[in-house]
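Hi P.,

Sorry for the delay on this. The queue was packed all week, but I finally got your sequence through. Input first:
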Amino acid sequence: MPLIPEEPQIHESAQGPRATPASGRTAPTPRPVPGPRPAAPSRPGRPGPPRPAPPVQRTPRDVTPAKPGPSGPAAPAAAASPQIQLIPASAEGALDAAEEAVDLLLDSGRAPGDVLVITTGSQHPWAEHELSFGEASYWAQHDAGDDVFYADAAVASRAASRPVVVVAVNGGPASAAASALPLAHTRAGALLIVCGDPQQINSVLGAGV
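Then the structure:
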């Protein structure tokens, strides 16, 4: 039976990827649009980013001066009390515990000039060594404020405040701890670390702070 010429053409046009429109012209292939695409409009219920408000020029009338209190201008807020950390230690081991506390402070990022160490009994070896060159040289290093400073309880009142104060209750008369601990509390800006007998420290700090 002879083949009908139209059958292959009908089969190819029905299943091929390119269909011929009724007009007989081939549909053009879409081309990418060069350049960035324009931003799509905001969807309903999802507004676009808010436009920044224009700067407002303040006039002296916009600023309301603070009203003085009944007894004059308001006093500045009192400084917050430092955090107190107690490290139990005997009188013989208090200085070593204080040294370990200082090492941990420095390892955690504290600057050496942020730390003051006060001893109630025997002086720290660093203080003994520096005082051998005279008090002027010793206190000059304190005033420089770039290193850990060690002071005996008898002269600690001359030391300036620092963010961290470490007290080693390493012996000495009871009056030394009784005076050194409240003083250290006033000198510590953020943290007070006390190394010694907990019962003695609590009795002094509870009465003196």
